[in-house]
C-alpha cells in the first residue's frame, strides 16, 4: 500500500504532505512520489496508537521517537491502520508475548539520565578536591550514583541475554538476529567486493595492496609492523596510493536513528567505572584531526599577509579565518574520537604543514601548530563540557594564535560556545553562540564577532566590528557562519571569508567537507612513512570509517584498556608523561596555559627514534 499522508514536522512547519510506501514490515516515506527516501519505520519494533480526540491521526511509536500522521478522511485512515496492523501481525506472529523492547527502552532512558547526573557530579567534584569539607559528601553521592547506574545496565543486559536465548530458537528472522547479522553480512559483502577489485582491477584503476604486502617495507619499525600486520581491521582493507578521495569507503544513512539494540549490546559486560560514549555516537575523525580542520581556510591568512597599510582590514581576514571552522560543523552532530595520550597527527596542504599531539589525558587536551611561508599558527583544545541528557554544551578554554610574517602582527582570539541539541531524541542540530574576541598584540587593534543563538527569526547570523587601539571603529562585519563574512565601511564591502561547497552526497558521509574527507585518508606511502603514533593508524577509527561497527567497538575498548594499563604502569613507576613535540607554558600577558611547539616534528632524524617510543595501538 502507498499514498500521501500528512506528517507532523515541527512547531513552525507543522503538518506537511509526505508520500508513504508500505513494503512488507517496513514503512518508508519521502517528500513526494518518486522522491528520495527520507526515513523508514520498522513495524516489527513499533507500536500503533490511535487518538480518540483526533479521529484522523495515527501515531507510530518506534521506541525512540513518535511519528504523528494524519489521513485525509476516515476511510483512508481505516485502510492504513488495517494495512499496518496486518504487516505487524505477519512479522510478530512468532514473537514472544513479553514486550521486552519497552523494558529495554525504559532502562536505557534511565541509564542515560543517570549517566548525565554522574558526569555532572564528577565535573563538580574535581574543582572541589582541595576543599576537604565537601569531598566526603560529594564522593558518597558519586558512589551511590555509580552503583545505581551499574545496576540498571546489568539488569538491561540480563534482559537482552534472556530474550536472545528465547528468540534464537525461532525459525523466522527476529529483531535480535537481524541486528546481530546485519553488520557481519555487510562486512562480508564489502570484503568480497574489495577482494574482487584487488584480483581483477578495472582498466585505469590503481592496484590495491594488502597490509601483508605493505608490511615487508616496515619491518625496521617493529611497533608499527606488529600493530598493523596482526590487526583485523587492517587485514580487511586493501590500500592504494590515490592522493585524493571524494568519498568515504562506507555510506552512512543520514536519517539513521540510534539503534537501541546496539546500545544494549555494547554495554553488556562493560565496567561502569569505565563508562565511555558508544561508538555509534562518533564520527570517523579524532580531535587531533578536528583541530587540523582550522587549516581548511588558511588562504585567508595568506590574503591577510598581503595587505599593506591597513591593519584593520588584516584583522577582518583574521576574523574570517577564526570563524571559518564552524561552517564545517553543519550537520555534524557526532563526536570526534578522543585521542590517546601521545597520539599525533600531521598533514601537509598546498600552502602549509600542520602537526598536532595529545598532550594531556585528564583533562583531554590536543595541541596543534602550523607554519607556512606567510604565517604561524598554534592552539590547543581545552574545553569545559556539560550534558543534561538532551543537550551537549562545549565551552572552549584558551586562545588561538596567529602571526603574519610580513607585518609581524601577532593575533589572539577565543572560540565561542557550541551546543548540540536533541542528543538522544528528536532532530539533532548544532548551534554556535557567543562572542569571539580578537586582538592584535602588535598594533593594539581589536575586534568582536558575535554569533547569535538560533531563534525563530535568526539562524547562523553573526555581527561584529574592528576598532583601532584608540577605540575608533574602522570596519563593521556581518554575515552567517554557514555562508560568508563581509567587512564593510562607508565606501565598500569586502568578502573576507566564504564557505566552500560541500562534496556531492556529503550527507551520506557525515557531512564532511572536501578537506575533512582527506584527513583520515591512508595511502600505501603513508603507512610506510607515518610514525606509529599517527591517528590514521588507529584500528578502531579505521574500522568505523569502513562501517565495521562491531569491530570498531571492540578495538576501541581494547585501546582504552591498553591506555589504562600504560597509565597504571607509569603511576607505579612514578613516571609522568612528557609531550614529545609541545611544551606547556604560561602566557605572561594573559596568565593562561598554552603549548609551545618544540620545532622538532618535521626534522627527519627523530622519526626512527620516535617510532619506537610509544606503542599506542
From TrEMBL:
One of its GO terms (cellular component) is cytosol. GO terms for biological process: intermembrane lipid transfer. Coiled coil: none annotated. Residues 1-89 form the PH domain. It comes from the Eukaryota. GO terms for molecular function: sterol binding. Pfam families: Oxysterol_BP, PH. Belongs to the OSBP family. This is PH domain-containing protein.
Amino acid at each position: 500500500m502507498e499514498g500521501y499522508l500528512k506528517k507532523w514536522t515541527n512547531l513552525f512547519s507543522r503538518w506537511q504532505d509526505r508520500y508513504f510506501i508500505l513494503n512488507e514490515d517496513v514503512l518508508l516515506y519521502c517528500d513526494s512520489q518518486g522522491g528520495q527516501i527520507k526515513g523508514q519505520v520498522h513495524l516489527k519494533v513499533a507500536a500503533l496508537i490511535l487518538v480518540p480526540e483526533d479521529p484522523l491521526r495515527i501515531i507510530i511509536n518506534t521506541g525512540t521517537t513518535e511519528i504523528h500522521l494524519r489521513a485525509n478522511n476516515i476511510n483512508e485512515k481505516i485502510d492504513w491502520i488495517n494495512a499496518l496492523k496486518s504487516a505487524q501481525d505477519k512479522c510478530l506472529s512468532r514473537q514472544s508475548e513479553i514486550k521486552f523492547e519497552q523494558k529495554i527502552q525504559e532502562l536505557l532512558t534511565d541509564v542515560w539520565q543517570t549517566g548525565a547526573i554522574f558526569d555532572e557530579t564528577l565535573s563538580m567534584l574535581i574543582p572541589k578536591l582541595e576543599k576537604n569539607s565537601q569531598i566526603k559528601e560529594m564522593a558518597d553521592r558519586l558512589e551511590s550514583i555509580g552503583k545505581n547506574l551499574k545496576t540498571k545496565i546489568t539488569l538491561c543486559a540480563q534482559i537482552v541475554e534472556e530474550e536472545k536465548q528465547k528468540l534464537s530458537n525461532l525459525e523466522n528472522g527476529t529483531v535480535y538476529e537481524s541486528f546481530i547479522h546485519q553488520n557481519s553480512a555487510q562486512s562480508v559483502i564489502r570484503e568480497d567486493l574489495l577482494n574482487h577489485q584487488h584480483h581483477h582491477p578495472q582498466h585505469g584503476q590503481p592496484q590495491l595492496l594488502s597490509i601483508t604486502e605493505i608490511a615487508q617495507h616496515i619491518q625496521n619499525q617493529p611497533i608499527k609492523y606488529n600493530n598493523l600486520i596482526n590487526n583485523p581491521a587492517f587485514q580487511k582493507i586493501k590500500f592504494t596510493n590515490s592522493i585524493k578521495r571524494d568519498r568515504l569507503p562506507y555510506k552512512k544513512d543520514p536519517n539513521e536513528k540510534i539503534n537501541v539494540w546496539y546500545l544494549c549490546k555494547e554495554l553488556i559486560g562493560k565496567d561502569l567505572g569505565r563508562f565511555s560514549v558508544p561508538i555509534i555516537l562518533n564520527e570517523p575523525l579524532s580531535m587531533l584531526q578536528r583541530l587540523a580542520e582550522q587549516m581548511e581556510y588558511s588562504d585567508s591568512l595568506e590574503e591577510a599577509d598581503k595587505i599593506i597599510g591597513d591593519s584593520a582590514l588584516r584583522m577582518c581576514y583574521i576574523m574570517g579565518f577564526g570563524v571559518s571552522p564552524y561552517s564545517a560543523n553543519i550537520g555534524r552532530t557526532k563526536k570526534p574520537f578522543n585521542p590517546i595520550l601521545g597520539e599525533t597527527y600531521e598533514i601537509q596542504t598546498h600552502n602549509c604543514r600542520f602537526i598536532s599531539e595529545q598532550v594531556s589525558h585528564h583533562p583531554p587536551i590536543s595541541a596543534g601548530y602550523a607554519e607556512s611561508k606567510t604565517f604561524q599558527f598554534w592552539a590547543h583544545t581545552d574545553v569545559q563540557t556539560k550534558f543534561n541528557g538532551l543537550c551537549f554544551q562545549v565551552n572552549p578554554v584558551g586562545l588561538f594564535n596567529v602571526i603574519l610574517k610580513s607585518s609581524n602582527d601577532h593575533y589572539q582570539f577565543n572560540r565561542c560556545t557550541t551546543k548540540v541539541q536533541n542528543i538522544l531524541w528528536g532532530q539533532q542540530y548544532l548551534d554556535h553562540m557567543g562572542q569571539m574576541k580578537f586582538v592584535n598584540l602588535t598594533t593594539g587593534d581589536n575586534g568582536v564577532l558575535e554569533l547569535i543563538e538560533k531563534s525563530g527569526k535568526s539562524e547562523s547570523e553573526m555581527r561584529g566590528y574592528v576598532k583601532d587601539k584608540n577605540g575608533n571603529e574602522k570596519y563593521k562585519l556581518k554575515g552567517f557562519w554557514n555562508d560568508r563574512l563581509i567587512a564593510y565601511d562607508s565606501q565598500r564591502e569586502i568578502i573576507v571569508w566564504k564557505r566552500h561547497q560541500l562534496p556531492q552526497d556529503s550527507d551520506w558521509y557525515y557531512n564532511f567537507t572536501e578537506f575533512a574527507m582527506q584527513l583520515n585518508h591512508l595511502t600505501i606511502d603513508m603507512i610506510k612513512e607515518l610514525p606509529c603514533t599517527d591517528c590514521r593508524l588507529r584500528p578502531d577509527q579505521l574500522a568505523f570509517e569502513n562501517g565495521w561497527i562491531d569491530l570498531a567497538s571492540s578495538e576501541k575498548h581494547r585501546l582504552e584498556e591498553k591506555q589504562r594499563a600504560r597509565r597504571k604502569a607509569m603511576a607505579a613507576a612514578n613516571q609522568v608523561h612528557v609531550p614529545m613535540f609541545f611544551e606547556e607554558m604560561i602566557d605572561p600577558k594573559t596568565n593562561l596555559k598554552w603549548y609551545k611547539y618544540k620545532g622538532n616534528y618535521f626534522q627527519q632524524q627523530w622519526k626512527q627514534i620516535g617510532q619506537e617510543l610509544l606503542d599506542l595501538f
